[in-house]
Structure formats: C-alpha cells, structure tokens
Amino acid sequence: MQGRWKDSIHLIRPAAVFLAGLLLFLVVRAYIVPPTFGQYGHYRGAVLDEVRARPVKYAGQETCAGCHVEETEVKGKGKHATVACEACHGPAARHADDPGSMRPMKPEGTALCAGCHEMDTAKPKWFRQVNTKEHMPGMKCTECHAAHSPALH
Amino acid sequence: MDATRRQILKGAGLLLILGARANPDAAPEAAGAAAEGAYNPHEHLWGMTIDIEKCIGCGNCVRACAQENDVPEEYFRTWIERYEIEGGDLEHPKVSSPDGGKHGFPPSSETTTKQFFVPKLCNHCQESPCVQVCPVGATFDSPDGVVLVDESYCLGCRYCVQACPYGCRYIHPKKMTVDKCTLCYHRITKGLTTACCEACPTQARVLADLKNPADPVHVFLRENKVQVLKPHMATRSKVYYRALDGAVR
C-alpha cells in the first residue's frame, strides 16, 4: 500500500489545492449570489416582489365607483362612459385610502375639454371635435355641457 | 504536511457549513410569497392592444405614466408620435412628438396629408433584444411576460438602451441605472390596469392578459387586423396595434 502511493504525493498535493480552491469558490459563491437568483431564470427572483411593492397612485375606476355611486351612474349613461374618473381628476389613491387626507383635483373646465376635443386633422373622424375659436367663443364649455354627461342640457 | 492539509480541509468544510447557514432567509422568503397566494406569475401573460383609430393624442397616458412611476422630466416610458404622410410616400413620414405628446399636440387643420397618432411604449417582447444583451442579468423577462429591470444589478452599461429597436429605454438621470416601462407591474399584479390605460379617455390602449381566456384581447385579436411594430426584428412583441399604417417605424 505504502509502496503504491509513495510516489504520488506530487499528484495529491495539487489535487488538494484544487479541492481547497473549489471549496473556497463554493463558499464565496454561497455568500455572494442572492438566494433567489435563478428562482425563475437568470435574475434575482425577489425583484418581482420589489417591483410589486412600488406605491399605486391611480386608485382605479372601480375604487372610485365604490363610493361615488351617483356620479358613476350619470357618467355611465353619457358619452363620457369610457372616461375614467382619474383621467380628468388626476391620481387619487391617497384620497381612496384616506378621503380626508387629500381631495382630487377639480379641473378647470374649458382648457381640459379642449385638451381632447380641440379640432385636429390627426384625430379620428368619429371623435367629436370643435374649433374653440369659432364654437361659442367667450363661453365656458360647462355653461351648456355637463362634464360628466356632456350632451346639451 | 498531512496535518496542514487536514486543517485546511476542515476549515474549508466549516466555512461551507457557515456559508449554507448564511442564507437562512431563502426558505422563509419563498414560503411568504406562497402564503400571500393571490398572484401567481405563471398564470398570466401580459401585453397591450392599441387602437390607432381611437387615439386622439391628448397626452393623458404620458402624464399618467409620469405621475404613477415618477418618470423624470424629459424622459418617457410611454409617448405619443404624430405621423404626417404625404400621398403614398410611406418612406418619408413627418413624425413629431413635442415633449413626448405629454401636453397634447398643436392642432393642425392641414387636410392634404394623412395624419394620425401612434402611442408607443415598451413592447414587452417575448424575444427581447434588451434581455439578450444584458451582461449581468439585470434585465429579464418575468414569467408573466413583462420585461423588468433589477436596479440593484444594473451597471448602467447602456447595452440594452442600444439593443432596443423601439427606443424604449433610458438611463435614469439620478439613479444612473436603466429605466423603462414596467407595464405598471405594481398595478397589474394587484388586479388594476396600467396607469396609461386607466387614464386613456377613449380606451385606445387596453391592457391584455393573453393567458386569461376571458380577456377581451382574444376577441380583439380575432376580429381585427393587427400588427406589431417592426415585425421583421422578430422580437415577438406583445403590443398589438390595430389600424397601424405601413409608414410607422
């Protein structure tokens, strides 16, 4: 036995060094590579939860409709049925979480209306447009049209 | 010599055991995610449909995106382009996008050209060039088909910015890491729609879950002629445009 191994020390020594190196690599790797790396693919799986944890600012139409029943009903019957509350009133998640803490913006009518309805060649033909310089100049849109259901009242 | 080697091996073995113990958070983290239970990324495949014939170029989507995601001024995760085409000259459309269309467009009464708006955003490709070039695994396709960025891994090398054929990425001026549309991942995984779709007054853009058989996207894709941007790039984009003109790049 002793005879067979006596000349192999020059092999065992580099083998031991290699093994030690391998172990060191595994140890360092275990410390450096985050635990969720590779959970779904070549990236840190925990990122999905990190991105999900970002704050929501637009509460969403359903949330608005949950409390503001009357406005939702009026809007739902009119031409603005597809327009979400927050499209005009701005992000309102803070208001939804705690109504007292913040009031959604009450937009200034005429400028907001023109933002969508100003006449423009590039807008699709089916979309109702007016030239605000010619269409009742000097009057506010809301004098004739209710914002939530804009047919003439 | 023998003793030394044994000591080294023993030490290394001990370190390995300690190393294994250094990651005890791995198991509880996974358990926590499972316990939450509500959202399983493998059950969804997110995309979007955009109907050019419904877009009025109001800029609501651009503003909503900026507010929801704190997009820095003069950078855009979504933007609107106005195309102007003279006759059949599809190769030379006039394209404008003042401030990304954030505050709408100066109205035009020009009637001799064809004009329309094209909203753009990350196409959340299934064969994303940006993901393929990332050297550090900072950008990736999530299991539910959203291209996301791990800010803590991003080196800011800009390979992906150059690789994206749609120009959807930028380096965040403060973080100095890459930033892009997340398809409002923090919203869609909670049952909400994206901020841009929420704010779109004409429903020109609609979030789509391609794995949900009840999602109206399937009817949309079946009943309309749809196209993706730059199909020749073979990116397998999941943003489907209806009534997309051949001049759009």
Any overview of this molecule?
The complex is a heterodimer of chains A (about 150) and B (about 250). Chain A has about 150 residues and is mainly alpha-helical. Chain A contains eight helices and no strands. Chain A has two domains: about 45-105, Helix Hairpins, CATH 1.10.287; about 105-155, no CATH class. Chain A is about 45% helix and about 0% strand. Chain B contains eight helices and eleven strands. Chain B starts with a helix and ends in a 7-residue tail after the last strand. In chain B, strand 7 (about 170) and strand 8 form a beta hairpin. The longest helix of chain B is centred in the N-terminal third of the chain and has 20 residues, at about 1-20. Among the domains of chain B are: about 1-35; about 45-65 and about 75-120 and about 190-240, Alpha-Beta Plaits (2-Layer Sandwich), CATH 3.30.70. Classes of the chains: A mainly alpha (about 150), B alpha+beta (about 250). Chains A and B meet through helix 2 and helix 3 of A and helix 1, helix 2, helix 3, strand 2 and strand 4 of B.
